[in-house]
Each structure stands twice: as C-alpha cells, then as structure tokens.
Structure prediction request, 468 residues.
Amino acid sequence: MTRRWIEIGLAATALLLGVVVGGRAQSSSVPRTPWGAPDLQGTWTNATLTPLQRPAALAGKEVFTPDEAAAYVKARVEQASAPPARPAPGATPNVGSYNDVFMERGVGVVKSLRTSLVIEPKDGRVPPMTPAAQEKWAAIRADRALHPADGPENRSMLERCLLFGAAGPPMLPEPYNANYQIVQTRDYVVILVEMVHDARIIPLDGRPHLPAGTTRWLGDSRGHWEGDTLVVETTNLRFDNHGSRFGVGYDTMSDENLKVVERFTRTDAMTITYRATIEDPTVFVSPWTLEMSMAQAKGPVLEYACHEGNYGLPNILSGARAEEKATGTSARRP
Amino acid sequence: MRIVATAILLGVMLTLSVRPVAAHHAFAAEFDAKRPVKLEGTVTRVQWINPHAWIHIDVKQANGSVVAWMIECGTPNVLIRRGINKDSLKPGTRILVDGFQAKDGSNKANGRDVTLPDGKNFFLGSSGTGAPAR
Prediction:
C-alpha cells in the first residue's frame, strides 16, 4: 500500500512538473514516419482533471497560473482519494457507483493550463441550443422521465455498450480507460479506442463522404494533412438523444447535421495536441471548439469487451419491473 | 497575496466540484438508495469481465445459513494497469462491502466501498490517478 502511494506521488510530481514547465516543442523535433508524415503512432491517454466546461466559479478565468494548476490538481487528487461521503442523518443516500480504485481520472490538467477544455467560445462553455433544439431536447427529456426503463432502448448509449464520449467524435476523456492507440499507413489512420472497444478507420485518400442519410455511430471520417497537423472531418453521425457523444459529464443531444473537425498535432515527443470543432447548426447556436493534450501512455490498450457481461442493463430493467410491481403502476407503453 | 488568492480560488472550486459519480451506467437505476447493505463475506469467485467485474461472496447469517451475494465493481482494465489481476483476490478472502442492494431485490450490491478486514488492501479509497501515463 505504502509503495503504491509512493509510486502515485512520484507519478503525480512528474506530471505536475510536466504541467508547470512543459512547453511546445518546435515542429522540427516531431517524429516522422518513413514516408515523411508526422508520426502520431503509439498509445496515448487524454485523461485529465480539466473539465469540459469552465465552472461558474471560474468565470473570466481562462488560464490557471502554474501555482494554481498545481494546487488544483493536488486538491482534486486528495478529494478523489477521500472515502465516499456519508449522507446526513435522514437524507437520501447517494447510491454512488463502485470503489474509486477503479477510476483513472488523471493526475494533471491540460498543458495549456486552461480551466476548461472548451476554448471557443471564450467563456469556456458549450453554446446554448437553438430554440427548436431546446424544444426537441425538452421533449426527449420528458419522455425519458416518463419511460425511464421500459426496455433497453430507453437506456443510454453507454449503458447499452453502443457509444461512449471517448470515441466520439469528438474524443472526450472518460474517468477511466481514456486510452487510445494510433496506427498509420500512407492512406489510413486508425484510432483504436479502449472505451468501448471501437476502431475509427480514417481514409486519407480524398474519397467523398458517404451519401447523406447513411449514418453510423462513429460517423464517416475523412482525413488529410495540413502541414504537420492531421485534420479529420466527420459527418454522417447518427442522431444521439442521450448525450453519450459528449462524455459522461455532459448530457445533451446532437443530430444528423453534426460535423466534427478534429486536428491532431504532435507538439512534442510526449504529446499530441487535440482540437475539435463541433458544428451542428440545428442544435447549437454557434460552433464550439475544445482542446486537450493527449499524453503518451505506456499501453497496451486493453480490450474493453462491453457486451461480455453487461449485467447492469438487465439489472436496471428488472429493477424497474420490481418497482412497478411494488407500486402497482406502470408508465410502460402498451 | 498570491497564495491567498489561489486558496480562495480553490476553495470556491472545490465547493462546486462534488466528487463525480461517473460510471458506465446509472447505478441509481440499478441499486436502491433505500436498501443500504453492509456485508462481510468470503470470496467464492471473481468474474473478471467487462464492462464490470463482479465479486461473488458467501455471507454467513446469524442463524448459520449462508447467502450468496454478487458485488458489482468497475472495469478490470484499470486494475490490470495497476498490477492487480484476477488471481489477486483469491477465493477464501474475507471482504467488507458497504453499498446498496439491487432494486429487483436480488442479492446483488454495488461495491461502493470494498475493503479487506486487515487494513492492508488495494480497495481502500482511491488513487485518483491516471495510471497509464508514462
């Protein structure tokens, strides 16, 4: 136990130092493939303590100072290490999930020291939805509230092992298994996503997108190089009414008009700087952009065979049936 | 002054950042907040599977009978990266579980807090770390 804590302490210190003194290397130092493309290959993690959106308490504070970043990381790691909070007497307890030893929330913030992953708009917040999307989203939420567990189709994409924010796109950090392996050829880039065992296959040969109306969970991605940056444009994404696409922490919808443009730049030997611009004119009033660091990780990416033993889903449904029986009521559709 | 400002900033942030309950599925939909359980049992087997590992335990009742329970945990992938494998928690090991029973009334609970009685355990608390970073 003590040894583990020492190891954790050393890892945290090393990463904090990286956060504090790390800067962007010149592109001349970027490793290259034998055919001259920037080499993005290897295993990477985007685990970070930086939140997607800037908390209200930090409104106007775009970037931490190195001291603030170090103090923030220390406080968050200590907070995560504390035993689960006990409810006050008489209060409804929080069921929680499982022991925190199963989490990998990261031990650092993004290298830019920004206080949110969202860098555009400048307030670090995802832009509001259009009035029409708000109406649609409200209807989805109302239906969810009324039919929380009629059948598996009412449950979230992640509970059904279909889609996590980790694969996206955009690829957002999950609180565990935030690991990726990138493999390149001249004509393809493949991103193996640990959560949930997805492979994004990205052709670089300039072929057109799939016809409109042909949609896929991970969409249809096309890549090209702009200087030393891999640019990946993804369209033909399925309508997702459960928010899984934007990570566990941010529940909102997107629709079939979603377009994501990602930029992968190897800014130094240990880092890929990842940017993604999200456009969905029928959902968001304006495009938004997020940026994060993908740090080289030890690997390998492990298999997260999500359908292997997903007992949680049938347990949720049987729990709902038991509640209906106990209360003598059911909102299930006939 | 700068230190004071940082402390104030962090104080504000931490009051807002309640420890997130982020997992593969909604545990509040599977387990019942009105049925907290504290179990002490003996491990009979571990299902080392995704998306969640399950620890099977036998819990001895006051009348001497034994009731089998299943405890839902997180992904084994994280533990593998920490050097813990399916043989680390051997049958016969006694564990303490503090969690909530399944809503369907079956003998399943979430392993919100799983500890070994002797204190030297890997389940206590959290590292909160990103283990894979080099």
Summary: Chain B touches chain A through 72 residues (CB under 8 Å). The longest helix of chain B spans residues 2-16. The radius of gyration of chain B is 18 Å. The mean pLDDT of chain B is 79.
